[in-house]
Design brief:
5-stranded antiparallel beta sheet, alpha+beta
């Protein structure tokens, strides 16, 4: 299966803080079934405080959590000028080389 992004909604199941291995979270999907994803220690801590969630997961052979938040909470979107400035800072060297 090729990796792809998927938004998952549901409740948090089992938390594995990853003391001896990689941290993981079991996500219990609204539509049924569950999914265990690798996560950072901070994401496990954040998930422990949530009742219902929305999450972005990289689906593949080893699903990985990108972000998780309380269900219904809007994503903060920076202004267009700030997004443009960030993109230019991040990619300016590559764009300069491609322009040559």
């Amino acid at each position: 299966m090729l990796p792809h992004l998927e938004v998952v909604h549901g409740m948090v199941g089992r938390l594995e803080p990853g003391v001896s291995n990689t941290p993981a979270i079991q996500l219990v999907r609204q539509e049924g079934g569950s999914l265990t994803v690798t996560a950072t220690a901070e994401q496990v801590e954040q998930a422990s405080r949530l009742k219902e969630f929305s999450a972005m997961v990289v689906m593949g052979t080893n699903p990985r959590l990108l972000w998780i938040r309380e269900k219904g909470v809007d994503v903060p979107v920076p202004p267009a000028e700030e997004r443009d400035a960030h993109a230019l800072r991040k990619w300016s060297e590559l764009l300069r080389r491609l322009a040559q």
